[in-house]
Batch of 4 targets.
Target 1
Amino acid sequence: ELSWENGNTPVAKGDVLIVDEAGMIGTRQMARVASKCQDIGAKLGLVGDPEQIQPIEAGTPFRDMVARHGASELLQIYRQRNTWQRAVSRQLAAGETAASLNAYKRKGHVTEHADRDQTIDAVAATYAMDVQSNPSQTRLAFAHRRKDVHALNLTIRDALRSEDSAPETV
């Protein structure tokens, strides 16, 4: 949309515009994109999961379209190569979140900590260890609240300094 607003034409007549994560688009934005594609003579393809992250704006047009008209569904899982991970992905898709988390926990891929500070310390330590063992790799650490992001950034920086790691942007 920004390209169109700036006078660019990233989509031309006969093109197909594929919108990934279409479930995150609200009603007004979906209408603008669909209308623009129709005006141009381009086709619009929507890809996403109507049960994942919902739009910030009002409306759930992708979910509504899937409910009304149906959709194709990808059944083969490629990202997870281990059989147990594929099974857990199917559980997640079916809404069995607790069972999925427990499966990852049994395999040692989920850790728990007593409180926020212990969690931040553990994430920072793991981050610093990963920097040491894989210095050329890119990594991200996420937190939900701004104050947690700030605390996590400070703690990671301290952990990197104490590990004598090369400074890295966090």
Note: Residues 116-133 form the longest helix (18 residues).
Target 2
Amino acid sequence: VEWHYCNLMYVTLSHVVETLTGRWLGDVLRDTIWKPLAMHSTYLSLQEARRGPAHLASAYIWREDQEEYEKLQYVSARFLGGAGGIISNVLDYAKWIKCLINESEPLSKTVHRDIRTPRMISDPEPSLTSDVQLYGLAWTRTTVHGEVAYWHDGSTLTFGAEVYWFPNLKNGIVAFANGALGSNPAEQVLVHRLMEVKLNVPASRRADLMKR
């Protein structure tokens, strides 16, 4: 009846996958998506990520009173599960976006079509940068300066992600940041500027996200 974003649904879906397969979600994702796409620096376990070859980024929060950054503790990936527990980097995640853009394996054409099919209107009002927004299988579908776009952002409060992909342009942008509470606004400014440059949007029509 009414659209609400809800992390509990992702937690529930994680439980469904584990119940139907009898396996831990991290193993299912690795075998079905990460390994086929050569995403070798992607994990659903903080312990595995620490044992991996890649450097693990730290998150920081700005303390206004002390005028300094404070390093924060990691949140358990297992606790977050499918609602934001995946540990990755932009190079690995770009491989996932390429899969979605090109409708390639390991997913079937039917699954790709299902991913792109909206289920509900999430926001009927145009925003500074996009038109009416529709929501499907974890992706918001809209148009940005006339181009069809799918996007999703998210935050664990300590880390943030901003992802856009344009199926018709065969182009996408992945941005990750490690500033608590401030990651997503910073990423939005960067990502939208990159999109406007790619779409050849004149300066007079660009959204002033810094001002917002």
Note: The radius of gyration is 18 Å.
Target 3
Amino acid sequence: MPDRKHQFGGEWTTRKLEVLAKYLQTYTTALKNTPFHKLYIDAFAGTGYRDARRDNEEDSPQNTLFPDLVEPEPQSFLDGSASLALQTEPQFDQYIFIERSPDRCAHLESLKSEFPGLANKVDIHQGDANAKIQDLCAKDWRSNRAVLFLDPYGMQVEWETIKAIAQTKAIDLWLLFPLGIGVNRLLTKSGDISKSWRRRLDLLLGTENWYDEFYKVETMPTLFGDDKERVVKATMETIGRYFTNRLKGIFVGVAEEPGILRNSANNPLYLLCFAVGNERGKDIALRIAQHLLKEVR
């Protein structure tokens, strides 16, 4: 089996996983005596572990644009989200790990031997995360509840996937939105955006209307009595608020202030977003999530 090291991120990686681990423990405790079948779903699960850096997906535009993905981690080998989920007490009834890479799926299989008491509860799916999640969400969710962690390498998540999650009305979603590491960098200062980048933003945001939200044309008088137009690009705060409002349009509850994951230069990389699918569990889930998110602002 290949070396299972899975490299990704910096100190911000630790912070997001701390929030997730605390939420998972609170979640399973709250639902411990309910009749629901409780699932943990991890898309882009990787190897289940991580070390200093994680390699980028070969087909992602961020390969050449986003060096922040390879910041050094203070520890050489740490638990990733899949491993942390398996350590959660009380336990989930089922764990679903999704990963496109065959090698990483092989690493995930090894988790069954490391957690033998949970081996029969672990399902590993190799393939495209968007397709796998949409298929999973199309099933009957009335007797199920889940926490789903969407932690893409960059901009792989599609809005259709997020919408499918919301439509189950049974899933609490933790999602990393690629604010500074993706969207902001594809939004050029001039407003001239290539067709391929526009397509990537359309898929992520679920609409073509984002351009009119992120760019404004200002008219300024010149010293010579005529007018000059200039394109003004939205701030990262505006972009983040726009995405939060998009989530509000499909989920029953959304954390108003996402966590901000920053690199060592204090530049925002991701927003750690939280959304609730079930109306009855909305209030308590939001209270817990918003309390945890204060740790990453």
Note: The first strand starts at residue 37 and ends at 43.
Target 4
Amino acid sequence: VRLQMLKNQINPHFLFNTLNMIAGTAQIEDADTTEKMITALGRLFRYNLKSSDSVMPLERELKVVQDYMYLQKMRFGQRLTFTCDCHPDTLELLVPSFALQPLVENAIYHGMEFMDGDGEITLKVWKEEEDLYFSVRDNGLGMTAEQVESLFSDSIHVTSKKGSGIGVKNVNERIKLYFGEEYGLMIHSEPDEGTEITIHLPAVPYSRILTEGGGL
């Protein structure tokens, strides 16, 4: 098992190093946009390779989302608008690593990839007493109750295989594993009305983990 784990690390590290080389070449050639895109993708890979911890401060997760959305906006252009409304006092609170990016990814692949009009995705983060909430909302095609249920039954994307492979079920199960069964996510969606995914977590500050020197 250890040998297989080491083998699985080879390709990601090779790809990350190759991206750095290509970014350097783009800089030499004054290809500024290409350099920025490759650098953003490289940061995503770096975070993936180094995020062995089960939870991360929200601020780091938001940077991952911002890099991901930069790449998607380069793909969709003016067709895609992304808004992030995050209260400053939530930035040091803990979230499972790679919990937000898959939900934003889901909004694109399930919500707007096949839309004719412009897509709007809004990420909102707020705190209520001892609870932390996230809302990822899109104005996309929406889903039926059966499609919503399928997101919880499969760990990969249902209508598209182009994504990261980290699905809603994966995020929901990790939240419950780290924080307890009373936490998790909910999906509200209607066909042609868009989708909203809400995450409920305890408001655990990163400083508490550093002070106590332990896990959750």
Note: The first helix runs from residue 2 to 28.
